[in-house]
Predict the 3D structure of the following.
Amino acid sequence: MARPARTAAGGADGRIVPGGVIARFGDRLPLTDRTPRISLNEGDTPLIRSLNIGPELGVRELYFKFEGLNPTGSFKDRGMVVAVAKALEAGSHTLMCASTGNTSASAAAYAGRFGLRCVVLIPEGKIAPSKLVQAQVYGARVVAIEGNFDDALEAVRLLSESAGVTLVNSVNPNRIEGQKTAAFEVVDALGDAPDMLFIPVGNAGNITAYWKGFKEYHADGLSTQLPQMIGAQAEGAAPIVRGEVVADPRTVASAIRIGNPASWEQATTARDESGGVIEAVTDGEILSAQRLLAASEGIFAEPASSASLALLAKLSHAGRVPPESTVVCVLTGSGLKDPSATEEHLLPPLRLPANARAIAKALKL
Ligand code: F0G
């Protein structure tokens, strides 16, 4: 029987073709015969070609890898499915993580679906409300701690030493394994690796994962080149850019409000091996990139995600992006995750009577 197309949701005979990262890339993941082939149909996200921003910035080919279209609305699902499959294989009963929001939502969703307990530690009052709702509705036990993400991560590292508890932050290597599949998808879609990959950096797991994926495909002859890895941190939470831990990280992009990234060294390795850079963008630059992306491309990404585009705009204005480049911006999460950060910059609705003529007049139709 012919192999079904990777993107197909159903076969010609109406069967549902198994989807998800494990079904599609299992041969490149650390699976055994005993690893359950679980899925929430994560991955297979679109690589959307820019219509307006690329030409405006003078970048020949610009694409957005929109990870906000994963089942829980962020890229975390790619790594979570592998981490949870391995936790099930190992006989764990509980998943645990620290989170700025998205990891907790993802862990909670897989825990609910596959019968595990889930405990998440979040910095109190510092995560987007929609992400907290997600973790709760999927059934996680949420613990809000006085402290920031870095404090929460330190605590869960100790707590997860108990038997039967699996830590599902990106310090778990299975998370990185799953997340590297996004790089495979980028190369599969373009036919080669891009020249530059822009990506937001928080705890630095994702830049580590993409670099691993690009290197693996390249080593197997599936791409002719490797991209420059360009990491974006928020100015108030830019430990890697500054070269020192930030004790009190601050940024509107709450997902990347991290002062001491766990995968710091791997991120600088990705940067240096690829000939890339990791630089900072201001909150203002992040929010205007977010609005530009929504208003001129029809893509609503959360503030942390928009840091990648903010840095692309900054570097291309400085003449640091060759015009003939093929560039990919990774958009890590959906804008619906954190609308409050954006609201104050938007035009309020026009308030008018329910009268067609009055509305037409006000709108000059
Ligand atoms: N973008 C979004 C939307 C995120 O949620 C995160 C991380 C990042 C970018 C940065 O990725 O940490 O691999 O460098 N969120 C984590 C969380 C920390 O707890 O949800 P990273």
